[in-house]
Amino acid sequence: MAVVLRSGGASDLRFLRDMLHHAYYWRERNPGVGAGPVALYVKGWGRRDDTAVIALVDGFQVGAAWYRLFKASQPGFGFVDERTPELAVAVVPSARGNGLGGALLDALLDRARANEHPAISLCVDKDNSAAIHVYEQHGFVRVSEGDDSVTMVAEIG
């Protein structure tokens, strides 16, 4: 499988929106719980500090990882503070299990370091042990836990 990772941009908004459903499908089942709508992760994409990496296999988009900063007045599900970007990562079901999620995560963490972010956060379904394991392998630690989710942070600076 020939994988290409490239920077994401405004032209990838539609794909990021599609990937958002894979990343937060568990939140969409119960959208009234917790922080604001899932759409916050892509709405108005292209703001300063919005950063994305897209994975392609044989020329087809199969995964994405992205981060953005949130305000305390409109936080994401894994909000820590206004200086810590929150990431989302998703791979289409047919391409899972091949290390793409880890590769996307590595590339995105490299971008966050290059952009001098000292840490990065995320929110994950507490029942998604496979994803939690990948995040822990990449230096994320649990900082809080809700009824259905875990917020994790990695120090990267």
What do you see in this structure?
- With 157 residues, the protein is α+β, with helices and mostly antiparallel strands.
- The chain has a single domain (3-155), classed as Gcn5-related N-acetyltransferase (GNAT) (Aminopeptidase, 3-Layer(aba) Sandwich), CATH 3.40.630.
- It has four helices and seven strands.
- It has helices spanning 13-23, 25-28, 100-114, 129-137, and strands at 3-7, 51-57, 60-68, 86-91, 119-125, 141-145, 149-155.
- The strands form two sheets. Strands 1-2-3-4 form a four-stranded antiparallel sheet, with helices on both faces.
- Strand 2 and strand 3 (60-68) form a beta hairpin.
- The model is unreliable at 31-36 (pLDDT under 50).
